Amino acid sequence: MARRIVQTILEESEYEEFRRASKRVRKTLREAAREAIRKWAEETSGVSAEDPLFRIRSVSYGDPKASEYHDRLLYGAEL
Question: In 1-79, which residue ranges form alpha helices assigned H by DSSP?
Fold first, then answer.
């Protein structure tokens, strides 16, 4: 996987707060920044890897035309 470098400029107070917080949870600044970016991107995108939708398993009714029956019931589609 390709990696990219992301840089930013913080006010001294922001930096100190970030440094203290990362030290409190025993993470390097790099680890804490990476985690913060991932969380922000997840919250902003509206998609979460933890969403139960991504844990749904497929269902087989043993009938190759089951999806066609569903379409007819749900959408009024003709077979």
Answer: 12-24, 29-45, 66-75
Nearest to 33 by CA among 3, 8, 50: 8
pTM greater than 0.70 (yes/no): no
- Rounded CA separation 33/61 (Å): 47
Where does residue 73 fall: left (phi above 0), alpha (psi -120 to 50 degrees), or beta otherwise?
alpha
Helices H / strands E in the chain, number of each: 3, 0
- Phi and psi (nearest 5°) for 8? -150, 165
Q: Which two tokens stand for residue 31?
A: 């680890």
Residue keyed to tokens 């990219």: 4
Residue by residue, pLDDT tens for the chain (79 residues) are 798 999 999 999 999 999 999 999 999 999 999 999 988 988 898 877 778 888 888 777 788 888 888 888 888 866 5
